[in-house]
Model the fold of this input.
Amino acid sequence: MATPQTLYEKIWAAHVVERRDDGTCLIYIDRHLVHEVTSPQAFEGLRVAGRKVRRPDLTLAVPDHNLPTTARKDAAGRVLPIADPESAQQLDALRRNTSEFGIDYIDAMAIEQGIVHVVGPEQGFTLPGTTLVCGDSHTSAHGALGALAFGIGTSEVEHVLATQTLLLSQAKTMEVRVDGELGFGVSPKDVILAIIGKIGAAGGTGHVIEFTGSVIRNMSIEGRLTIANMSIEAGARAGLIAPDDTTFAYLKGRPMAPTGKNWDKAVTWWRSLGTDPGARYDKSVTLDAADIAPGLTWGTSPEDVVPITGFVPEPSSFADPAKQAAAQKSLDYMGLTAGTAMRDVPIQHVFIGSCTNSRIEDLRAAAAIADGRHVATGVRALVVPGSGLVKRQAEAEGLDRIFITAGFEWREPGCSMCLAMNPDKVPAGERCASTSNRNFVGRQGPGARTHLVSPAMAAAAAVTGKLSDVRELMGERA
Amino acid sequence: MTPVTTVSGRAYPWGAKNIDTDVIIPAHWLKTITRTGLGRGAFETVRAQPGNIFDDSRYAGSPILIAGDNFGCGSSREHAAWALADMGITAVIAPSFSDIFSGNAFKNGIVPVVLPQEAIDRLLEVAQDQIVTVDLETMTVTTPFQDRFTFELDAFRRQCLMEGLDEVGLTLARDTQISKFEEAVASNRPWTTVESGYASIGVEGSRRT
Done:
């Protein structure tokens, strides 16, 4: 009998073009997503060397990082110019490069435009058992559908454009199992924050994580995307979830997904990809769903996680002296005092969006809290849908009206305040409850203070003006 | 790419942990469409603080940076490697690196040297006033005090660094193998072909509220 294999090992084996003597492999790349920030130098490299794109048909480009999320057309329907000349130049470069090299390009004005990691699954471009790359670390998100998906640098973008391959060493495997039933008010974001809090920001380095267990099995694709998206925040370049009926139901009929006989053949193969009984992971970690509460970050690393009922930790409570120093620096930057209850911390900004939490289910969860309430005085709250299609769906359900009536700003799709490349920034010294993925120093703008939370927790913070336990607001409705 | 065999000189004795790529180069510097000139934005938030290590005249122009665990975590931006290269840094020594940053460093002639924390602690001390040498021939980091720490590098990456090889050119030479693989996939996994383009579609999600 063949040696039992993990999901990762099966996908890896199916993509080896060539194995070198030193063990590194030339790996075939089935899908390549391109955005405006990490691609201009790659296209320039091709141009200088006189090289072409090997498989433009396996490549899809969409702008997201730089696009302003304010109205893109005026009242008369005329396209508004982009104020920042550097952003405009980068967006223009993507349009020109994709046209020159024959790559499918979703224009900023198209309803299908959105954050690259929202668009890929939405269009069925992302498929189980494929290798998928993008010049963006949150490419790990696509692992939610069982694709081996990871972020690459610009030199690798150029390598994939020219050769449709990457030279890689096989990663180690790590299982993160979450069993049990999630408690009241606990969302997929809380699950991934709890995981990162447990294994640390470097806990998955050198590994590909496979998320398993009943909690993951029972989760929708939207929820799984949130989980896999933040694998990179635990140091794992890729996160995987075995494809199952939930995955197939999600993908069937999507514009770029296979059809007819090809679909049937695909499903048969996809079903065979799950980790075999008896296969071994290099590392295994288990979490009990019952231990997971709505959570958030207090510091400047995604591993700085506490439950909302918790307190700002004492730096001296950490065993590692380097972590003690880092914690003190984090507290100074965050303007927090050890021992403060997280629920007593006021905020000035709320950001609901990003490739982590901008899908329709995220917006519904936030709207359910916002409905009938109002954004607190002195708080600015942004809702940025992940794509034009998500925005349209939300508007069809009236979510935009709920948000606008409650005092939230309803924006156009893009990366927005997650990384402060476009005009959406948090001013220095001000505090933001954010559904994004990184609470790094300066991430949401120079001097900005970020607390990572779920969409419902972000909405709760918006209406109360402070970090809040969403369960108390949900309780009022129960 | 310029070949690298040894990197020798002063080193920034920093030692900070979890240095993410937003710290190495903040996002507003990412709007460039070239690879050069990013040294100006390198460590911008760190340099905004008085007395920071990067503006300390003792270490000005150092080719080596000594850092803590998980260096280069976060975003995949190769701008981080370009910014370091533009500052003149050609080796970073740390207990661990993020996988993506490490790959980006290699492709830009920057050696990511992994050494245990004890070695880092010793180097942080020595680098206060002495030079540090990273040698790819002997795979060692040495100091004028006879310290000698050996490190490991992936053989292929080491060769690329030492010979300044163009990886895209090397892979293009495997065209026959890649074409053979593509033919096999076309018959075994025909669904990986993209049949049609993107289009408008409903995105109802799985749970209606």
